[in-house]
Amino acid sequence: QAGPPKPAKSLREEEPMKASSQAELSAERLKEFKSSLFAVFQSAHAQSVKMKTLMEDINKGRESRFTEPDIRAALARMQDDNQVMVADDIIFLI
To answer: Where is region (Disordered) located (predicted)?
Structure first.
């Protein structure tokens, strides 16, 4: 029965994204994400981008890559701040 606590630790690393996404990224990392996100929107000449496209394009040429949890946490934070809207894995610029 020592097994359940170990998975709980790994789940805790993922759960804060959903429960408290704002705590996931530092202010500096969030700023980097926003800059990269807006570059993706500009290059696409669009007001919306699919999550798959964003995840592929946002890390092009980056040494310090954004993971999917990073991206989702940053988008949740931006959504809370009314900067983007995420629906059906499509990100809309507000």
So the answer is: 1-23
Q: How far apart are CA 19 and CA 36, in angstroms?
A: 25
Tell me the C-alpha distance between 69 and 67, whole Å.
Answer: 5
Domains and CATH numbers, the chain: 25-93 (1.10.10.10)
Distance in angstroms (rounded) separating the CA atoms of residues 63 and 11:
27
Report yes or no: 40 and 49 within 8 Å, Cβ to Cβ.
yes
Residue range 26-48: average pLDDT?
Answer: 95
Query: 64-91: per-residue pLDDT in tens?
Result: 899 999 999 999 999 999 999 999 999 9
